[in-house]
Write a structure and sequence with these properties.
The modification 4-aspartylphosphate is found at residue 57. One of its GO terms (cellular component) is protein-DNA complex. The chain is α/β, with parallel strands linked by helices. It has helices spanning 16-28, 39-48, 65-75, 90-98, 111-119, 135-149, 154-161, 165-173; strands at residues 8-12, 32-36, 53-57, 59-60, 63-64, 80-85, 101-106. The chain folds into 2 domains: 8-119, Response regulator (Rossmann fold, 3-Layer(aba) Sandwich), CATH 3.40.50.2300; 135-173, Orthogonal Bundle (Arc Repressor Mutant, subunit A), CATH 1.10.10. It contains 8 helices and 7 strands, in the order E-H-E-H-E-E-E-H-E-H-E-H-H-H-H.
């Protein structure tokens, strides 16, 4: 894993139950974990002692997880950070990598996926997904993402998607496609 044998891992996510479950799972895999729920709390922990590994949520209540990745990378350039997000797009993935992240995973990601991302060799290629999402599922995920970005405002979401409000309401009322 880390060249120096340092197994410190900082998990930054405002979903406390998720971060606690992930911390327990990563401790079973040999990491010494710490958690933080905000950018300010994470930056304070990084200033005290920059971790060898980090798992950082992109959207936090008090800011952007990319700021945490940047702080970690400036204090410890060899640190391996993974960004987790439910709001993924190419622009933020590119920015995350430029700031020092080694991978960008969409939620929900399990501990095995996160462990694999943290411990992969620098030149290993990612495996293609075994079960890629269907086109209907990708469309549904995009609609859900825009809906959340609009603070669950149906009218604003419909306007941004160039869709009739009632059509959007029918889509939102249905279950997610497989």
């Amino acid at each position: 894993m880390a060249a120096s044998g340092d197994q410190t891992l900082l998990i930054v996510d405002d979903d406390k139950s998720f971060s606690q479950r992930l911390a327990r799972a990563m401790e079973k895999r040999g990491f010494l974990t710490e958690t933080a729920e905000s950018v300010s709390e994470a930056n304070a922990k990084v200033d005290a002692s920059a971790p060898a590994f980090a798992v950082v949520d992109l959207r936090l209540e008090d800011g952007n997880g990319l700021d945490v990745v940047e702080a970690i990378h400036s204090r410890r350039p060899e640190a391996r950070a993974v960004i987790l997000t439910g709001y993924g797009n190419i622009a933020t993935a590119v920015t995350a990598v430029k700031l020092g992240a080694i991978d960008y995973l969409s939620k929900p990601a399990d501990a095995d996926d996160i462990h694999a991302a943290l411990t992969q060799r620098p030149h290993d290629k990612a495996e293609p997904p075994e079960n890629p999402m269907s086109a209907d599922r990708v469309r549904w995920e995009h609609i859900q993402r825009v809906y959340e970005l609009c603070d669950r405002n149906v009218s604003e979401t419909a306007r941004r998607l160039n869709m009739h409000r009632r059509t959007l309401q029918r889509i939102l009322a249905k279950r997610a496609p497989r």
